[in-house]
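Ticket 4471: requesting a sanity check on a complex prediction with zinc ion. Repro inputs:
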Amino acid sequence: MEKDCLFCKISHGQMGTDFLLENDNLVVFRDINPHAPVHLLIVPKRHIRSINDLTESDNQILAEMIMTARQMAQKEKINASGYKLLFNVEKGGGQVIFHLHLHLIGGWNK
Ligand code: 5GP
Ligand code: ZN
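Returned structure tokens:
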């Protein structure tokens, strides 16, 4: 865990956040400031700063994040209507929390 990292604290259950899904590797919870009717964050428990910091050894967690987003889209019933998957990368890319996370955004025309 990285000291002073909000998503390290959230993903380790230290902030009392409600998880839609949790396993040994990642958690899923609703964005506090949703940009769409469905806006979930898929967050690995292990601290990785951003997409820029990924290495070959992270292939598995990255695949798991995307497959989890796919699964959550089905659970939220937005798979048929469609959705966006988004990684913001560093400040210029709109990243505000410097702990890797995948946005699942959709539900406009459910
Ligand atoms: P970024 O811009 O870094 O890609 O996205 C960070 C996201 O985290 C933002 O959409 C923001 O609304 C969300 N967020 C920030 N703090 C919290 C929090 O304490 N709880 C939850 N559920 N979401 C948060
Ligand atoms: Zn972190």
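Notes from triage: Residues 59-75 form the longest helix (17 residues). Leaving this open until the requester confirms.
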